[in-house]
Structure formats: C-alpha cells, structure tokens
Amino acid sequence: MLKKVGIIAAASVLALATLTGCGGQQAAQNTTQETKAKAITGAADLEGAKIAVQEGTTGDDYVTDEVKGAEVSRFKRVVDAGMDLKNGKVDAVVVDDQVAKDLVAEIDGLTILPEKLTEEQYAIAVKKGDKELLDSINAAIKKMQEDGTIDTIRKAYIDKDEAALAELAAKAAPTGGEKLVMGTNAEFAPFEYMDDNNEIAGYDIEIAKEIARQSGMELSIENMNFDGLIAALSSGKVDMVIAGMTVDDERKQQVDFSENYYDAAQVIIVRK
Questions:
Q1: Using an 8 Å Cβ cutoff, are 214 and 255 in contact?
Q2: HSE-up of 127 (CA within 13 Å, CB side)?
Q3: Which of 186, 229, 154, 160 has its CA nearest to residue 79?
C-alpha cells in the first residue's frame, strides 16, 4: 500500500514538473515575441522584419529597396495594414507621416516612432505633355498659397479645426463648363477618404475643388487603387491625379508634376 502511494505521489510530482516546464517554455516564448516586437526602435531594426505597406506607394518603395530581408505585406488600404500590426501579424507599418497620425488615432495600441525615413513632397500629376492643364494647376496652387486657401485646408484636415472645415463647406461646389476628372485613392486619410456621408473628402479633394473653381470647370472624382492611378492618367481615363502622390524620378518618366503643395515623410508605426 505504501509503495502504491509512493508511486502515485512520484507520478504527481512528475506531472506537475512537466506542466511547470511547459508553462515556463510558453512564458519564454511569449517573452521572446514581446521582446521582438519592442525591438523595432528605428530604421536599423527593420532588417528581416515583417513590414506592412500600402501597395505602390513610396513606403512600399522604401521597404523594397532599402530594407534587407524584409517580409513585405502589401495592402490596398492603409487601415488593413494597421489592423495587421495591431493583431501581431506584422512587426511594423511604413507609411506617410500625416497618414500615420490619423491611423494611430483610429486604431488603439499603435504608436509612431520619431525617426523620419525620407523627406518627400506631394504634387499633382498630369499626362505627359499636357502643358495647358499643368499651367492652370500651377496658377491655382500659387493663388491658393497667396490668398490663404492652402492654410485653411491645412487647418481643416491636418489640425482638425472645425471652423476651417465649416468655411470650406460653405463654398459653392465647382459646376459648369467642361468636366475636370480627378483620379484618387480614398484610403489615405486625411488627404482622401470616405466621410460619414459616404462621399470622398479630404485635403486633396479641397485642392481639386479649388482648381476646378478657378478653371471654371466641373469636378468629377474617380476612386481607384493607388497603383492604378498613373495608368488611368496615361490612358486618358482621368485628367489629373491628386492622391498624396510623392514626386520621384521613376514617376517623372511617366507623368508631369505640378509645383509641390505638401511636404511629407515616411515613418514607422509599431505596437505600443
């Protein structure tokens, strides 16, 4: 009887030790995963990481060209990249700085690292050789800078100033004359996004409206994937592209760009 009890006791101790060992291994695995997530503190830590980007953007270009060994997940929508980060499927998101601010405000548990990966400028793209439209756009941008319209747009969509939003909303919609067709990707808040009324709104939309007003044209907006915008412009489906599009040498070979209207940068988002 004593021998049987001893055997049972020994088995219980062994089982407890096994369970404790498994728990210890699991805790070690969790600690390792957490340490890995917290290890990304700047560009140097991106090597070999799982990184989410919006397809076809300069964030995509940066990770593809500059980050060794990265496992890149490409998304049509920035918010989907953010959700994959929140859910632990990727280690970081690389995206434009102001878009990053709107994204972390929308999705809990994310934060932006202070380091800037690039310095960039947004401009409006037109079909190669369309000098008449380009000159009209540049004239409108200059006027907006001189009369304070650009400042109002910035206050409304970057600073989230309600009075500035109301001022812009009070302006009459551009109507009459020929149609001016704008191509954009409404997945890039605060520059272009679907508002509560399921209408495309944002910083770039206000720029487009003002260009149409000054040109005496009626604005029409075509929403499409970002990586299809230049093709749509080249084929004549749209007249201009305003989509938080960064000026770079590769794009300059395909389209003509206006004067810059916004300074941006690429940044890294990680979990808190």
A1: no
A2: 14
A3: 186
Cα separation, 215 vs 210, in Å, equals: 8
- Provide the Cα torsion 191, 226, 250, 127; round to 10°: -80
Can you tell me the distance from the alpha carbon of 42 to that of 40, in angstroms, rounded to the nearest whole number? 6
Distance CA 90, CA 56 (A): 18
- DSSP SS3 for 201: strand
Instruction: Dig out the tokens for 178 from the structure.
Output: 């020929």
pLDDT per 10-residue tile (average), the chain, 272 residues: 40 40 45 53 96 96 97 96 97 98 97 97 98 98 97 98 97 88 97 96 98 95 97 97 97 98 98 96
Give 137's strand partners. none
Q: Give residue 39's pLDDT.
A: 83
Q: Between the CA atoms of 67, 73, 78 and 81, what dihedral angle is there, to the nearest 10 degrees?
A: -110
Q: Which of 65, 209, 235, 91 is nearest to 150 (CA)?
A: 209
The two structure tokens encoding residue 261:
């209207």
If one counts every other C-beta atom within 10 angstroms of the C-beta of residue 53, the result is 26
Q: What is the pLDDT of residue 98?
A: 97
β-bridge pairing 179-184 and 218-223: parallel
- Would the pTM count as exceeding 0.90? no
For residue 186 the two structure tokens come to 């409404």
Q: How far is CA 11 from CA 3, 14, 16, 20, 40, in A?
A: 12, 5, 9, 14, 45
Nearest to 158 by CA among 248, 29, 244, 64: 244
Angle in degrees, 0-180, between the axes of helices 203-215 and 131-147, rounded to the nearest 10: 110
SS3 (DSSP) at 10? helix
Domains of the chain: 124-244 (3.40.190)
